[in-house]
């Protein structure tokens, strides 16, 4: 983060939120012609970039892992509102929209964002280190949340089809909220140090890189306990990254302004995504693709800010921050969506389809196994990134061609 960003917000970051909201106001409820579609896409892209910038300003003020948590929570809260709104106005056709969007968010974060961060980070820094305890605990919670909320409805017998009864949905909502709440407590209070970025030149990391065999033989406590909070990042442009990390923190007023602009940008991102969704639905129908593709497209658009932020962190050799963003977004998406749906089901008409099909269960099981193998090493190379991206490509391909 450059000194100009810390001392005062650049003009473009102040201009983008009202510009994007203006485009949203002009395009809301209208059929998008060619010109308006271009404006909506331009506003969407600008809002994503501005959201990432303001999230970095806030993160620099509050420190990790609070910065990544703020971005993940903000995006997810608005995403949940978007899902509930579309379901309320979509009728029976939107019965599976929540399931499709949440599962797409899990696959995008665990394979797309993680794979992209691993790949670009390894291409630049060869090997990147992260904390095993943080990533494995997030994966465990995510696996439990998806299984209880999206897999079990396929096998329950109280109601026909892949649905929960009212009591089952209430129990799933409470369980999801409790597990996510405990995870946030552990991440920000009890074991905050587990989720902090890793210093690249600690003796443990140097030993890891110089003698991989010895590193593999080391125990898990040695991998997690000796790593320090990131103070400096080494890389091809070490001096630039060092300046960014040691830049003075923004003032409280600047951070609060950035926080407000962050929420405005996220509102614009979700609103513009909703505006462009009818065009996406028309394109999906014209191509003869399944309705689930709409949920995938919505999740892709809404998760753009986290994707950009995770890639930028990986390029700066802060892979732990990238993993916090990706896995945290997956946890927030499930942990907040299911309780919200449990409450919204009181006035929503029609069935709420939550259970995954066989194809999706196989993809999820494969994602969990591969993620366990990736996150158990404490370091990342190009190979892990390529594998996760291929799983993500398989998910996209099978979504279009089931």
Automatic annotation (TrEMBL):
Q: Which UniProt keywords apply?
A: Membrane, Transmembrane, Transmembrane helix
Q: Where are the transmembrane segments?
A: 12-28, 34-54, 66-90, 102-123, 135-155, 167-186, 255-273, 285-304, 325-348, 354-375
Topology relative to the membrane: Multi-pass membrane protein
Q: Where in the cell is it found?
A: Membrane
The UniProt record lists the Sodium/calcium exchanger membrane region domain at 34-188, 258-399
Please report the name of this protein according to its UniProt entry.
Answer: Calcium:proton antiporter
Q: What is the lineage of its organism?
A: Bacteria, Bacillati, Actinomycetota, Actinomycetes, Propionibacteriales
């Amino acid at each position: 983060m450059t000194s100009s960003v810390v001392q005062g917000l650049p003009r473009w970051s102040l201009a983008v939120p009202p510009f994007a909201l203006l485009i949203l106001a002009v395009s809301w409820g209208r059929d998008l012609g060619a010109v308006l579609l271009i404006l909506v896409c331009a506003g969407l892209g600008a809002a994503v970039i501005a959201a990432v910038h303001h999230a970095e300003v806030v993160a620099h003020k509050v420190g990790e892992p609070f910065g990544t948590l703020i971005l993940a929570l903000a995006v997810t809260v608005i995403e949940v509102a978007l899902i509930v709104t579309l379901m309320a106005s979509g009728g029976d056709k939107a019965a599976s929209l929540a399931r499709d969007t949440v599962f797409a968010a899990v696959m995008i974060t665990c394979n797309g964002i993680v794979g992209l961060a691993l790949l670009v980070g390894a291409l630049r820094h060869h090997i990147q280190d992260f904390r095993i305890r943080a990533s494995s605990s997030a994966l465990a919670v995510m696996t439990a949340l998806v299984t209880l909320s999206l897999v079990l409805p396929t096998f329950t017998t109280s109601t026909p089809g892949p649905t929960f009864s009212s009591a089952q949905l209430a129990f799933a909502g409470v369980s999801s909220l409790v597990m996510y709440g405990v995870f946030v407590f552990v991440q920000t209070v009890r074991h905050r140090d587990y989720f902090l970025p890793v210093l690249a030149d600690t003796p443990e990391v140097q030993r890891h890189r110089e003698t991989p065999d010895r590193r593999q033989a080391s125990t898990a406590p040695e991998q997690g306990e000796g790593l320090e909070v990131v103070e400096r990042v080494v890389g091809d442009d070490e001096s630039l990254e060092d300046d960014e990390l040691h830049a003075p923190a923004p003032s409280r007023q600047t951070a609060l302004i950035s926080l407000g602009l962050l929420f405005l940008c996220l509102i614009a991102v979700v609103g513009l995504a909703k505006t462009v969704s009818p065009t996406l639905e028309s394109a999906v129908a014209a191509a003869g693709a399944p309705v689930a593709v709409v949920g995938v497209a919505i999740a892709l658009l809404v998760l753009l800010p986290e994707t950009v932020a995770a890639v930028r962190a990986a390029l700066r050799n802060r892979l732990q921050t990238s993993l916090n963003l990706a896995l945290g977004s997956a946890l927030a998406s499930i942990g907040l969506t299911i309780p919200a749906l449990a409450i919204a089901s009181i006035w929503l008409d029609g069935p709420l389809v939550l259970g995954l099909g066989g194809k999706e269960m196989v993809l999820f099981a494969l994602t969990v196994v591969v993620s366990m193998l990736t996150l158990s090493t404490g370091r990342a190379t190009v190979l892990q990134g390529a594998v996760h991206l291929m799983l993500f490509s398989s998910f996209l391909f099978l979504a279009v061609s089931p």
